[in-house]
Structure prediction request, 346 residues.
Amino acid sequence: MKPFAGFVLSLGLLLPAYAQNHSDRPLEPFTGRYHCGGRWTDFQFKMVPVSGPLGLDDPSGGVTGAFTFLFNRSITSTDGAGYTLSGHYDPKTGRFHLDPKPWTAPHPAALKALGIEGAYDVDNRKMTAKMLSDQCDAVELAPPGVKLPPLPATESVSQGPPIDPKRHEMMLGPSNVTNLIEGGPDFEYLVTAWYDPPNTLHDGQPIDESVEHMKKDKFACVGSQHVTWDAGGLKGTAPDRVTLSERFVIECIGDCKGVFYKPYAGAQVVHFGLTQPLPTMQIKSVWLGGTSFRWNFSRTHSTQPPPEIYIHHWKPLMGRGPFDARPADIAREQAQAPPCRAPKAR
Prediction:
């Protein structure tokens, strides 16, 4: 037993020293950004050696890496994504090359899994690299505690138009507008994407994202109302009806700047502001059996033809207690429902 005990003791003394001798390896997470397809993308990058038995580095095992991204979905929503890589790193020269592995989680289509190669300067804690794509022409990396230099003004992404926090259609959260239906100002047609902050990624057009939002929130489309304009194209109306508490999404195609709207409904009304891709309102009937009402639209200029405007009606499939639909029923009802998008966008 003594020789075996001596071997274990020797291994216990050697293991920490060997396992922690990583002074020649870039184990810290680097902050970076790459320029691909004319667009800068922010990320964090880290690579670690592949471990063998007993937690020791395996010289023949190479290294694994990880790219993680934090990006804006809109002015009110952020999201994250990431993928892993595998390859090799030469501690003598600092050279590395890693190829991407397939995505294992949902991610925006605009994000591509790219490889990376470059070199790590141990003494200066600097890393130079390039992305393995002919669409990319620049990569910048900084170790922990060091900030990347600001982008040139010509390459930075500007903020959208200014936001008036007193206007409900510009608020960054839902607000009750019931008291504004009679006598208050009309709401201006605004698309949240017009206010995109830097590093915003989209999965499709605003109507595509709106439909996905509603389905994710367990709503099913009821149908759509089309706005009819007067002869001058400055005033429009559309009839509608709410049964209990439903959501209404406004989609405009054409010259939509300077368009204003309001639902004239004897009901409780909540405006979702810029939290949804398209103007969205929740209307709750205060009468048993539902409420019929009218949408009024107006424009500040008479360009012809007037825009095509549709109000899409969505009903909830959850929130009814024992009457809530099961997941399979929700999927089936959503699949069988009308499209809730303008004919030109289908």
